[in-house]
Every structure is written in C-alpha cells, then in structure tokens.
Write a structure and sequence with these properties.
The chain is of the alpha/beta class. Helix content is 32%, strand content 22%. Strands 11-12-10-13-14-9-15 form a seven-stranded parallel beta sheet, with helices on both faces.
C-alpha cells in the first residue's frame, strides 16, 4: 500500500502543513483533526488534500485524532469558497479558517486531552404563551384593563399579544420581548401567561407562514425578481426607503424554504437590525437562526455543528461571519443594505467583503443572490446597468406613506441673521417644537460621538492629543475623560492649558453627547435619549433604547450612523441632519457617495406611516451638488455624476484598488521600506502605483504608518497583478533590513 499524506489547514497565517496518514483510516476531506505542531503543541486542522507526494523533510509527523466523529465541517464547494477568498484577498487558508470557524472549534493545547469530544447540547430557550383563559379577545381585553395600576406589566402583556399576532394560541421566544424575567414571572403568578423552557422544536417546523400581503407594486417587483432569476444569478432590488423591500424578501424566503433549501439573509450589523430579526421570527418561527460575532463561543459552535447535520430548510440571519456557515442546500442569499461599508472586514485578515463573497458563494453553490438597497453601491449599480446583474425597481413607499419633504437650512445665513442657537438653526428648532406639541417623534443625526471632537486652548492653540496615535482626544462629558477612539487611551481633562498655563482648555465642536444635553436645555419638556457606541454598552442596553423609543417613551432620539439602519418607527415625522458638511469633506473618493447614502438612509426614517415626514439638513454649502441631489431624492443623478468622476480619475468601479499599509515604530526605517517597495512596484506596474503617502492618521498605537496604492484597470488580469504583487512583496520584505516591517494588504479597500 503506497504511503498517503494529508495537507492540513491550521489556524495560522501560513500555508497548509503536510502530515502522514494511515491508509486504513484516511480521514475525509473537510474533516477536523488534531495534529501535533512543534514539540508539545497540538492544533485543530482541516483536512484539505490527500495525496501521495512526500515533502522533502527528514521526519513527518502523523495526523492525530479525527474530531467530531469524522463528520466533515466543510463541503467541497465550501472549500472552494475558502480558496477563492484566500486567493482574491491575498491571505492564507489558515487566516480564512480563523474567521470561518468558531473559537471553540479550533483549540490548541499541550496534549490530546484538550481535544476531548465535548458535547455541545442544544440550547434551551424560554417561550411564552397566553394562559388558555385569555385566548378569547374579549377576556383578554378585560384582563388587560385590570392591570391599569401595573403599567409595566400591562405593557409586557400587550407586547406579547402584538408578537403573537392573530394566533393567540401560539407562543413566542422570550428574546423577542423587551420585558425582563421578573416582569414575566409576575404575569405568570397572576395567571396571565405560561412560561415554558425547552429546546426549540426544529423538527416540527411549520410548513405555512404568515406572510404579509403585498401591494400591487410589490407584487410586480416580486414577479420581476423571479423572472430575472431564471437567467441571472444576481439581481439588484433598488427600492426607495420605506418601499417594503423586506416584504419581498419574506416571500422569496418562504418559497425557498418550502423547496427544502437554505436561505442566508445578510445584514450589515446584527445589533442594529433587531426589528428585522423580530419580523422574521414572527413569520418563520424556529426556522430562523441568528448568527454573529457577539454570540458566545459555545452558542456559535452549537449552531455550526447543528447546521453541519441539517438536511436543509434553514433560514440564517446574520452579519458577515455567517457567510462561512455550512449550509449544504443553499438556494437563496439576500444581502440587505448591500451598500453598507460594514460588510467589509477591516481587521484582521481575511479582509473580505461579505457582499462580493456572497455573490461568489451563491455561484459556487448553485444559489441565487438578491442585493437590496435604497442607495445601491456604485459598483452594484454599474453591474446592473451593464446587464451583469438583473435590476428591479420599487419606487413607491409602502401603503399610504409618502416620501418626506427635505428642506435645506443654510448654517452661515442663519448665523448672519441671528437665527442660530447653539448648534441648531431656527428652522430645525421650530420643527422640533411642532413635533413636541403634536406628540410626534424626532431623530437627530450627528455622525460624531462624544461631547466634543477635541479640547483646545484659545490662547496658544494647544490641543489634547493621544500619545500613541496622531489624533486628537475626544471629550466625553459623562465620564469627564478624554478618549482616543483608535487605541482606547484615556486621560483627565486638564484644569488649565498644559502649555501656557493661562486659560482653561475648552471643548471644541460637538458630538452626540453634546446634542443630547442641548436638546434637554432648549426643550425641558422633551424626553431625549442617545444611541451611539457610548450609550450602547450591551445588546440589552441597545434593545432598551430602541424598544422604548418604539413605545414612545422618548420624544427625541440623538444618534450616529446607528440610527440610519433598519429602523421603522411609527411616530417619527422629523429627521434633523445637524452637520452635513462633516460627511462631504472627507479626504476619500467615496465621500460624496457615502454622504448621499447616509443622508438618504436617515431621511428615510421619517414619515413611514400616514403622517407626512420632514427632513431638515443643516449645511454651510446649500448649493453643493450632493445636498441638492439628496433634497431631490435623485440617486441616479448622483450615480451618473460620481461614475463620470470615477472614470475620469481611474477609481472603482473602473479600476481595482489594492491598498498596502506599512507599519513600524522606527519612522526612518519605515520610510526607506516604503520608498523601496514603491520603486519596485513602479518597475512592474508603472503609473498604476501611487505613494508612498502618509494617511490622515499616520500613527496608531505607537506605530507609524505609510501607504502605497496600486490601481489595476478592470480590463487587465487581476489574478496576474496579484501574482506579480506577491513576488514584489517577497523580494522587498525578504531582505533582513525590512523583515520587521508589518505589511497589510487590503484588496478592494472601502
């Protein structure tokens, strides 16, 4: 019997290692095995290839124990996806493995005891149902009236009834409700509800779904998607905010599930899409699996292994990491808000874009991809206009809702006329006052958190800066600290300027924390709440704010980009964008596109029911083309203008970018390495190379940064360009002088 060898992928930034395998017990491809590395360490690896070619080494270690009962963790098609990601994004299969598998599935230890077959039991959940005596609507109304002296219990009961919908005899998982366990226990003691803790019944799944009724325009869009899927793998659903794209998703999902196929619904950030999760769970029940990086390692592992054993009919709703789940019968991938930059992984490698990988994964697995957005990325828009993707439009808002009226408020003019108070123009202040009088709600958008972006001395110009990063420290008034939003460094606010010792250092500019305090000062009767990374310290805190605002416990919601995504609040009729110029004046070729998307997305939160909505944009550049395009809701005008500029200056989607970032603590050494790299690249790529240049933030965590950019025209072979780039990187940083320089390769940076 000839000797057999296995190439094993390990969770390291290295290529696969080769081990010996016994011919009588050769593990299957995609199987997890424990393998020795070094003298004492043992790692989990994935069997990638079985062959008969012995590597040129003196001794070869054998493969150790086969894990998870020999059940493959990957199919061959999923292995092909890993290989595509590693090749396209210029990383190793080991780095893909680190991103793809939950932490508990790739342990390392000093002996095989670390790899014992731990039993991952299905997670138990708490389910709620109405007591049998209250399943009659009349009896339920009487019981609810008796809770007039316990408003929180009454609100919890009403929330349960709302979640049940028309099926008062059904049950819902507790995670769909905002009430805490003691509140629900109090309702159970009163005999109003029944609490049951059990494993979700995934075998007794319902075969009928309570799908929403579609409008005529939605029906037409759904039919068009179905027709275009017949001859195209990918379709772009371009629908204005509030047009009801989610209802179309649900009908397509239902059709796919009833065929016994799996569905992957990708969302930009799972914590920001709680309303979408709740809607999907109400419709599809236990078929819904939520997956994202904030889940515990154990729960992610349980989910991964359960899906390995699944026979199809799964609906996975998750962030970008759910792309790697083992869905064997994938029939449909839906990428909601496909334009969102959160789909791009920044750190660590693989620096993949989940939208683009989803399109490739669907093609490899024989599925279809639906991209949905009210403000599509220019890449997807161009693909649709060129016929590579199908294109379906949804131009009407759902039901009786109308597009909001967008008004532009000139900040400079308001200052000259004395019509500006604090950070608000009178136009916006009057609009907020009107909403408060009518009992309606307002969202205020400011894309900077904290109280002030920086603290400075008006006498000598000193500013508080991070000692490890080349950025100013942001002032947070609630904690009375200065904080670096890059490395987390904090410092107290100095009483006097450390340089001149003359005057007190003052906060400059404004962030969401300051806006929240100003709203409370200008409108004492208003109940204001803030939604940003500082106020949302946990998922529970996030849910408390969102659900409280939905129940109208708050009048004004102040937030960063978190308020732009996926929310549908019935009471919101006013949106205020406080500083549009901050978005427009970024040193980024995508600044205009991103500013348009952010403003249109947050504007879409207003007037989503029968009451008309209004949007006030405060800007010092009222005649800026993007501001005018937002006011007119002219996405196509923005797209045509930006695409013309991109083509003229050779930027995506007319070229592919590779951003190379070099890092080192020794600035002169870093400079020499960057100059040599750029010189070598120009010798192979000519004028396609830009740099080296200093980024806007050129020092982070004590390391200096320099950038080199490579632009490859779309007509050229990108695979060939990557091959040449690898050769240049190896030649440059293979030199002893530059081996300590860190190089980050980012393909298609966002």
């Amino acid at each position: 019997m000839p000797e057999r060898y296995a190439d094993i992928v390990l969770p390291l930034a290295r290529e696969p290692f080769t081990f010996a395998v016994g011919a009588e017990a050769c593990p299957a491809l995609g199987t997890a095995v424990a393998v020795p590395l070094g003298r004492t360490k043992i790692l989990t690896g994935i069997v990638w290839r079985i062959h008969g070619q012995r590597p040129d080494v003196k001794t070869l270690k054998p493969v150790g124990e086969v894990l998870y009962g020999g059940m493959p963790l990957l199919t061959e098609r999923q292995m092909a996806l890993w290989e595509w990601i590693a090749e396209y994004y210029m990383c190793t299969l080991g780095e893909v493995m680190r991103a793809a598998l939950p932490a508990l599935m790739k342990p390392s230890g000093r002996d095989t005891a670390s790899f014992g077959e731990e039993v991952f039991r299905p997670r138990r959940e708490l389910f709620l149902s109405l007591a049998s005596a209250l399943r009659d609507p009349a009896r339920l109304a009487e019981a609810s009236a008796l809770l007039h002296r316990a408003p929180r219990q009454r609100a919890a009961l009403e929330e349960l009834v709302s979640a049940l919908g028309s099926d008062l005899a059904g049950e819902v998982p507790r995670r769909m409700l905002g009430a805490d366990r003691p509140m629900l226990a109090a309702l159970e003691r009163r005999g109003y509800v029944t609490l049951t803790e059990r494993v979700p019944d995934r075998d007794g799944r319902r075969e009928t779904f309570r799908l929403p009724v579609l409008t005529a325009s939605q029906e037409a869009a759904l039919a068009s998607v179905g027709r275009q899927f017949a001859d195209r793998e990918t379709v772009l659903l371009y629908g204005v905010t509030g047009s009801g794209k989610t209802e179309i998703y649900m009908h397509l999902i239902a059709r796919t599930l009833l065929r016994g196929e799996d569905v992957l619904l990708l969302v930009p950030e799972i914590v920001l899409t709680s309303q979408l999760v709740e809607r999907m769970e109400r419709t599809f029940g236990d078929r819904v699996t939520v997956y994202h990086s904030r889940l515990t390692d154990r729960r992610r592992t349980e989910t991964y292994l359960r899906l390995c054993r699944s026979e199809g009919g799964e609906l996975v709703l998750g962030a970008r990491s759910s792309l790697f789940l083992p869905l064997k019968k994938l029939g449909l991938v839906v990428v909601d808000e496909e334009h969102d930059p959160s789909y791009k992984q920044a750190e660590p490698a693989p620096r993949y874009h989940a939208r683009d990988c989803a399109v490739v994964a669907a093609r490899l697995l024989g599925a279809r991809t639906l991209l949905g957005s009210a403000t599509p990325s220019l890449e997807s828009w161009l693909n649709a206009r060129a016929g590579k993707y199908g294109l379906v439009r949804l131009d009407e808002r759902y039901g009786d809702a109308r597009p909001p009226e967008i008004r532009i408020s000139d900040t400079l003019r308001a200052v000259k006329r004395g019509e500006r108070h604090s950070h608000f123009n009178n136009l916006l202040l009057d609009a907020i006052a009107q909403r408060l009088e009518r009992g309606e709600q307002t969202i205020l958008y400011q894309n900077r958190r904290g109280f002030a972006p920086y603290v400075a001395c008006r006498t000598c110009g000193w500013t508080a800066r991070c000692p490890d990063c080349n950025v100013t420290l942001t002032y947070h008034k609630q904690t009375r600290r200065l904080e670096c939003h890059y490395c987390g460094h904090t410092a107290p606010v100095p009483t006097y300027c450390p340089d001149c010792r003359v005057t007190e250092a003052e906060p400059m500019g404004f962030g969401t924390e300051k806006i929240e305090l100003e709203v409370a000062r200008l409108f004492p009767q208003a109940r204001a709440v803030r939604l940003d990374r500082d106020s949302v310290t946990s998922e529970r805190a996030f849910q408390a704010i969102v659900r409280g605002f939905a129940r109208r416990e708050w009048d004004v919601l102040v937030g960063t980009q978190m308020v732009t995504k996926g929310f549908d609040f019935e009471g919101v009729t006013l949106v205020g964008i406080l500083n549009a110029d901050n978005m427009l004046n970024n040193p980024d070729f995508r600044a205009s596109e991103r500013a348009f998307q952010q403003m249109m997305q947050v504007a879409g939160r207003a007037g989503r029911r029968e009451r008309p909505g209004e949007v006030v944009i405060q800007t010092a550049e009222p005649d800026h083309p993007v501001i005018r395009q937002v006011a007119a809701g002219d996405y196509e005008g923005m797209a045509l203008q930006q695409l013309a500029e991109r083509e003229a200056f050779f930027y995506p989607p007319y070229a592919r970018l590779v951003a190379l970032t070099l890092r080192h603590r020794d600035a002169p050494l870093l400079g020499r390495a960057a100059v040599e790299l750029a010189s070598r690249l120009r010798g192979r790529f000519g004028r396609r190379v830009n740099g080296p240049v200093r980024p806007a933030v050129d020092k982070i965590r004590g390391e200096y940064l320099l950038g080199v950019q490579l632009r490859i025209e779309c007509g050229a072979s990108f695979a060939r360009a990557r091959k040449v780039l690898r050769e240049v990187l190896a030649a440059t940083f293979g030199q002893a002088e530059y081996k300590s320089v860190t190089v980050v390769v980012n393909v298609d940076p966002q």
